[in-house]
Amino acid sequence: MTGTTKVRRVGNAKPPTRASKLLQNRWAGIAGLLIALLAPFVNASGYALSVMTSAAIFVMLAAGLNIVVGYCGLLDLGYVAFFAVGAYTSGVLSTRLDLPLLVTVPAVIVVTVIAGIIIGAPTLRLRSDYLAIVTLGFGEIIRITANNLDVTGGPSGIYGIPHLTDSPVVFYYVTVVVVSLAVLGAARLGRSRLGRAWRFVREDEDAAEAMGVHTYRVKLAAYIAGAVWGGLAGVLFAAQLSAISPTSFTFLQSALVLMAVVLGGMGSIPGVVIGAVVISILPEILRDLADYRFFIFGVLLIAVMILRPQGLWPARSKEVS
Amino acid sequence: MSLLSVEDLRLSFGGLLAIDGLTFSVGEAEIVSVIGPNGAGKTSAFNCVTGFYRPTSGRITLRGKDLPGLRPSAIAGLGVARTFQNLRLFGELSVLDNVRAGSHLWLKQSVFDALLHTPRYRRSERECTEQAHHWLDFVGLSGDRYSEARNLPYGEQRLTEIARALARRPDLLLLDEPAAGLNHGEKAEMLDLIRRIQALGVAIVLIEHDMGLVMEVSERVVVLNFGKEIADGRPEDVRRNPAVIEAYLGSDAHA
């Protein structure tokens, strides 16, 4: 029995070693950023730039969905809804009101926050499978609405969205900077009081509630953050293509983003970045295989899931700040 | 005025009366045990106090403030912390992160602090980590604090859960069978720990089956049987109460 005069017994309460920290987020992030910045020096063809820009936008989507699915454990099958809301908001405002794309960004943030609340407030009272089904429904509702409204151009969508810049190389670098900030922001949120609360909810909602975490509010915050990330990715998407239509926002897109998060490692920022790059670039690399490429793509994904079920770069429990 | 007061608490699930008129109170820094056979309604009473169940009737007040109808998180905000009968740790998070959960309510940090890593963010994170270590030291956890909580031995998981509750800095701590599954030595340490928690000025309500521990540590004991309160008094009185002996040993037993 221990006495009342308790001595500090710290045990092996050592933080992870330097070497393992080296592998952790900061250095991985700098390495990833360098690769992204240097890539155009290897190949700056129009095709390569467009693939890399799309990959970067996809990384931003995955970083946003990772907040919802990875951190907070809310299975969202309709994430592309927010991507669509962002793309359409900036598309409509820039073409109808002749606004520069940059000016639409505050409006996009406001609209996606509202969309996050409208979709999240009723659905987040549900748990697990029910939540997945309802988000799936909302994803389709947004797409079908865009398909039928006049203001969104119906099935043919919106054309002539102004580019942010005329040079694809400059746009690529703008995208890389924006996406890097988004990834950094998501990582920092994940290491904050709110980010810990998300993980507590993911692990055990009742225990989190008992520790004073207002679980409903915290889940809504995750949903809104995910919505804003997705919406801003939508602005980049609209700027890149200058034309958007409902066919870009199908369930397949939601499924692919989710796949990037799961493949990379839920809750792990380096993981989801790698996952998103793999998911967006692999089909392009396999292009030579023509009709077989989606078959090979599928086989590769299954192989990864079997060999590394926890993801390519799983989150560590040692989330030390 | 007592810290926690429960008056004529009733709880029914459909036709089943889980709690049928429970009345007790807990003073500041007092240790009260709630005992009774399995299924007597002890944990249900805990769930009513902490807001996980809404009582069918009766009053529960903390320093005069009504608790029923509040969210569990709001009740935690008033200074109530609890542990769970079958351990509810955040299994995939580190031991340290589990205890950091206790800091959630008093950590001052906005989303913008987190995004910009302001000095306030750094200060609050440092403080939160120091506090977590402090409470792990307090409960005497010697294992690896950076490993996943689910990988700890059972006894250390119990201690981690208590450290997490203490990091909330509660005025009232509800412990649901803290000594269940512990060996003899660990039980002795738990007894010591409960006393040291009380010495911090924290009131404790204890559900426990280990009568040695209950009689040793409690100032008052409340006995439940089939949802009904059959005794409330000092441990030595409750021990001799015929109704209690009957509930525990059957009607033919002699004291």
Overview of the molecule:
Chain A has 321 residues and is mainly alpha-helical. Chain A has a domain at 44-250. Chain A has 13 helices and no strands. In chain A, helix 2 runs antiparallel to helix 7 and helix 4 packs across helix 10. The radius of gyration of chain A is 21 Å and the shape is globular. In chain A, 47% of the residues are buried. The model of chain A is unreliable at 1-14 and 317-321 (pLDDT under 50). With 255 residues, chain B is an alpha/beta fold. Helix content of chain B is 38%, strand content 23%. Chain B contains ten helices and ten strands. Chain B has helices at residues 42-49, 72-77, 95-100, 111-116, 119-139, 154-167, 184-199, 211-217, 235-240, 242-249, and strands at 4-13, 16-26, 31-35, 57-62, 65-66, 80-82, 172-176, 203-207, 220-225, 228-233. In chain B, the strands form two sheets. In chain B, strands 6-7-8-3-9-10 form a six-stranded mixed β-sheet, sandwiched between helices. In chain B, strand 4 and strand 5 form a beta hairpin. Chain B starts with a strand and ends in a 6-residue tail after the last helix. The chains are: A mainly alpha (321), B alpha/beta (255). At the A-B interface, helix 7, helix 8 and helix 9 of A face helix 2, helix 3, helix 4, helix 5 and helix 7 of B.
